[in-house]
Amino acid sequence: MSPARSAGQPRLATYFHVHLVSDSTGETLNAMAKAVTARFDGVIPIEHIYSLIRSERQMERVLAEVETAPGVVLHTLVDRDLRMQLEEGCRRLDMPQIGALDPLVGALSRYLGAALSTRVGAQHALDHDYFNRISALDFAMAHDDGQGGLEQLEGADVVLCGVSRTSKTPTCIYLAHRGIRAANVPLVPGQEDGERLTALKNPLVIGLTVSPDRLIQIRRNRLDGLNADHTSDYVDLDRVREETVKARRAFERRGWPIIDVTRRSVEETAAAITNLLSERRTHRLGSTW
Questions:
Q1: Is the Cβ–Cβ distance between 138 and 179 less than 8 Å?
Q2: Residue 229, pLDDT score
């Protein structure tokens, strides 16, 4: 038995191969694999991604790769013959294989009493939702960083307002991929304080805040990338504190919902915004998230 590690000794990471097999783009499977492996500390997957697998010959190549790098096989295959080929190949290689969507699909099928579709890539069809997402993405790019007048902003579902470097742009892009038309307006000391947004009637205006210490860290990293001077007001602690306090007070005075992004990822911020939009539709809008 190996001796116990000392309290301060870090645990070595565990690496393992995970083979992701999809007959479509593989986006769903990749996201699921990342979400699951993130639940394990010190575990690092070595991903092998096989997208658009739609023939026996392609599956033979997949199985050859699995044999070369033994590990867990996850799949979202719809075609019954390809599934059988993968399952039989994994049994022969003594490798675990998991149909990632099977439990959910099976439960819904039993509940709905409906037959399963065998159409490959059904979630990526060029339908209304797809074109709505593309339109939302175009809108986000055209109304980034305060671009567009009030009349154009009225076409938004949500307008994000905040000081520089509060993740407004990436959050708008993320929301666009969900079909939400999002614009953003930066608060610039001495130029823009968001007052014009009070005239908006259709969009939900949301204020994004962040702690001064975190904001300075982000801005310094930004200046490093630009090889810019670090002595400007942009990263001065007192000025940044004043900037963030004024922003929060402006949001509160106007009654806008506020989201603190200090410890939130873009995905978490977008989820909070989605909740606010849902609550607005049911007339239960809160104030701070």
A1: no
A2: 76
Q: Both tokens of residue 123?
A: 């979630």
* Strand blocks (E) in the chain: 14-21, 43-50, 71-75, 97-99, 158-163, 182-187, 204-209, 258-260
Tokens representing 91 are: 């049994």
* 166 located within any domain: yes
φ and ψ of 167, to 5 deg: 65, 30
211-248 pLDDT, tens per residue?
A: 999 999 999 998 888 878 777 889 999 999 999 999 99
What pLDDT is attached to residue 2? 45
Q: How would residue 33 be classed by pLDDT, with cut points 50, 70 and 90?
A: very high
Mean pLDDT within 68-86: 95
189 in the same domain as 163 = yes
Across-strand partners of 14? 43
Query: Secondary structure of the chain: what % helix, strand, coil (to 5)?
Result: 50, 15, 35
**Statement to judge: residues 163 and 251 lie in one domain:** yes
Query: In which domain, by residue range, is 107 found?
Result: 14-124
Give the phi and the psi of residue 117 in degrees, each rounded to 5. Answer: -80, 140
- Backbone dihedral angles phi then psi of residue 94, each to the nearest 5 degrees: 60, 45
pLDDT in tens, 2-16: 444 445 555 678 999
**This prediction's pTM:** 0.71
Burial 196-230 (b: 16+ CB within 10 A, else e): ebeeeeebbbbbbbbebebbbebbeeebeeeeeee
